[in-house]
Prior knowledge:
The structure holds 2 protein chains of 2 kinds. By secondary structure, chain A is mainly beta. Chain A is globular. Chain A starts with 42 loop residues before the first strand and ends in a 15-residue tail after the last strand. The N terminus and C terminus of chain A are likely disordered. Chain B is mainly beta. Chain B is built from 3 helices and 13 strands, in the order αβββββββββααββββ. Chain B has an 8-stranded mixed beta sheet, with no helix packed on it. Chain B has a two-stranded parallel ribbon with strand order 2-12. In chain B, a hairpin with a 7-residue loop joins strand 8 and strand 9. Chain B is globular and about 40 Å long. The two termini of chain B are 19 Å apart. In chain B, 50% of the residues are buried. At the A-B interface, strand 1, helix 1, strand 3, strand 4 and strand 9 of A face helix 1, strand 6, strand 8, strand 9 and helix 3 of B. Strand 1 of chain A pairs parallel with strand 13 of chain B.
Amino acid sequence: MSTEPETPLLDSGFRHRDRSVQPRLLWPEYKSTLNRAPTQPLVPLSPTLSEITGPTFSPQEIDLADRDLLKNARIDRDPLGERTLLTGRVIDQDGTPVCATRIEIWQANAAGRYQHASDNYQAPLDPNFSGYGCCLTDELGNYEFLTIRPGPYPFANGANTWRPSHVHFSIFGPAFATRLVTQMYFEGDPLIRDCPMLGSIPDRSAQSRLVAAFDMERSRPFDCLAYRFDLVLRGPKQTHFENRPDGL
Amino acid sequence: MSKDPLHHETSSQTVGPFVHIGLYPTVSGILARSRTYGNQLATTHAYGQRIRVEGQIIDGNGETVRDALLEFWQADGLGRYAHPADPQAESADAGLSGFGRSVTDPDTGTWTLESIKPGTVRDLNQRPMAPHINLALFARGLNIHLHSRIYFDDEVKANALDPVLQQCVPAPRRQTLIARRKEPTQDPCVYRFDMVLQGKNETVFFDL
C-alpha cells in the first residue's frame, strides 16, 4: 500500500467535492429522482490522471454567433420575448478565473416551450428561436449571452407544479472532475420558492447562488435588461500529494 | 494542508428531459454553428483496436432510461490524454477526440460509442490502470451527474492489477464496471455495458 515511492506531484487533483452544497440525489419532492437516484453510496475515488485531465477547447471551434440566441436561429425576425443579457464570470474556489472553457446553455422560449420532440406543452414554438447557445470564457473568465427571458412552464410532478424561468448552464473547467451542469434562475421570480429541483439543494445560501441578480448597470438602454450569474468550479488541491491510504 | 477555499462550488441541477438542445443539438433539429460532440471519437487514422460499446440504462422500476446523455473521456491507444496535465500530451494521437457524447435512443434506450480501446494510463502512484473509459451520466431525475468507468472483460490480467477496481471498489460490485465483449466480434470489437441505477447489480458511481 504505502511502500510505493512517494512522488511530490504538482497537480494532485482537486478539492474534494463538498456535497453539502450539492443537491441530494434522492429528493422525493422531485419525483423523477425516485426511480433514478442511486441507492448505494457513491464510491470515493481519489482523482487519477483520468480525472484531472479533460477536454480542452479552442476559439476556432466556437462560432461567435452562438452567444447571440436572438440571431443564431433567426429565420425572418428576432424571437419574441424580453431581450435579456446574461453575463457572469467563472472562477475556481480560490478565485482564479477559469479561462477558455466551454459554456453551453439551453432554455425554453418566451412562452415556456422547448424546441424538442418530447415537449408537448400547449404553448407555441417560436420558429426564430432554438434555445441553444455556446461560448468560451475570456481571459478573465467572463462570458455573455444575449437571449430572451424564458417563460415558466408546468411539468409532470405534482398536481400543479411549475418550473420557474430558468436557463440550463453546462460548463467544463480544466478537467473531467470539474464538470458541472446547473440551472440559472431569475431574481424575483415567485416560482423559485416552491421549485422542487432547487429545493433538492439542502443549503439555502447555495440555492440562492443559482438565482441571477438583476443588473441594471449592465442593461443596455433601448435594448435589453441584464442579469448576472457567476459560477464557481472546484479548485486545485494546492498541497503536495498526501499519502492517503489507497482508494480513499 | 491546503487553506480553506474562498468560494463554494456552484450547485448542480438536473439536465432535465430537454438536454439535447444544449448538449446534443442535432437530436432537436438544431444545426449548431459551433463544434458539437458525438459518439464517434476515432478517425480512420487513430491508432488502436477499434471498439464499439453499447448499452442501456435501467431505472429502479426495471425500465429503460430513454432521455439520458453520456459523456466519455479517454486516453489514446497508447494511454495518453490530450491535456496539459499529462506529460505525454504532446504526442497524443491527433486522430482521436478523447471526449465524446452519446444519447440513449428515444425508442430503444440504447446508446453507442465508437472509438478505439484506450491504452494503459498510470495513476498518481505510477501504478498501471487497466484500459478504461471515463464516463459521466446526465439525465432527468439526476440532480447531479454520476461518474463511472467502463473497463473491458478481455483485459483479465490488467483488471486484476487495476488499483481503482481492486482497491476502491468492493469485490461484489466490480463486475458492474466491466463491459462484456460480444463474441466473435473483432473489427470493431463490440462490448455491452449496461448500467443499473438502483437495486441489485447497481452500477458503481464514484465520488471523485
